[in-house]
């Protein structure tokens, strides 16, 4: 049977769904190359990891929030996300999983699983939800906040470490599980084909919430080595990152761009019974991208139109409290009194002790904003 689409195109298409269509990234950009087309962030201790579809994984020291410094760039192909366990960073290079040990200002790739551009015969068939093995080549009950072992991911993250397992929503729309009990030697132990257009994953101790073009999926981690899909909330075709607080999941739906559809809104979903999620409230949001929630308040990106803060204390009636239109945004990490705001080519760090009055502290690239 003739194949009409190459494996390379699969990876590039997934990147386009999240960040917009791009040409093939250069293979060996300069070592000091800044990121230019960001996708997601991970905060692990004092290190901020920025995944860039063009240039790889960029690592910043944010121990001084007023003066972050660049630590290194790890060249990767179409890098979409990362997660951390101990001194190992897990990140994708195209379809390939890499386990990367970071020491000071240097790094070593200690393990690789899969190929950067997969062969078509490596694709599982639709309807196949069985676990599967793989080969690795080596070089040297409550719905609560995510476990801290894997760092804190932004809402477009597709990697998560919970306990001794790494979960990944990969470029072929599979949920892949790896055993990372020995962090430097990840072992793929299961995979489930979900469907086209999975673009985000939010972990809690007992569940995984995945955002896709046609709905939000909930997977139960009762058997953490092989999560099982227990529910799906369907919606109109839209881009769909998700975050969770308590018994509510918050989903932004963006109908513009490659996702299709016409809906631009925030959707609030009751997950009091994760087996039977229920949409309880919606509100219009212009061109929404990523989001972050804390203390019944929610920051939502308005894309090139800035970002908004919403009161979500009553999920049935989310209310916009304030909007800032000073610049483009894409995603967030909200950590205590600090808000990391991702744009296409920068991260802005704010003090949000008072979320209604964010105070800009610094930015990770370029001349600090005044």
Could you explain the architecture of this structure?
- The protein has 370 residues and is mainly beta.
- The chain has a single domain, classed as 7 Propeller (Methylamine Dehydrogenase, Chain H), CATH 2.130.10.10.
- It contains 1 helix and 30 strands.
- The protein has one helix at residues 7-19; strands spanning 38-44, 47-52, 56-61, 69-74, 82-85, 88-93, 96-103, 106-113, 136-137, 152-153, 159-162, 165-169, 174-179, 187-193, 198-203, 207-212, 215-220, 228-234, 242-245, 248-254, 264-270, 278-284, 291-294, 297-301, 307-311, 319-324, 331-335, 338-342, 347-351, 359-363.
- The strands form 7 sheets. A 5-stranded antiparallel beta sheet has the order 4-3-2-1-10. Strands 5-6-7-8-9 form a 5-stranded antiparallel beta sheet, with no helix packed on it. It has a 4-stranded antiparallel beta sheet with strand order 11-12-13-14, with no helix packed on it.
- Residues 1-29 and 123-148 have low confidence and may be disordered.
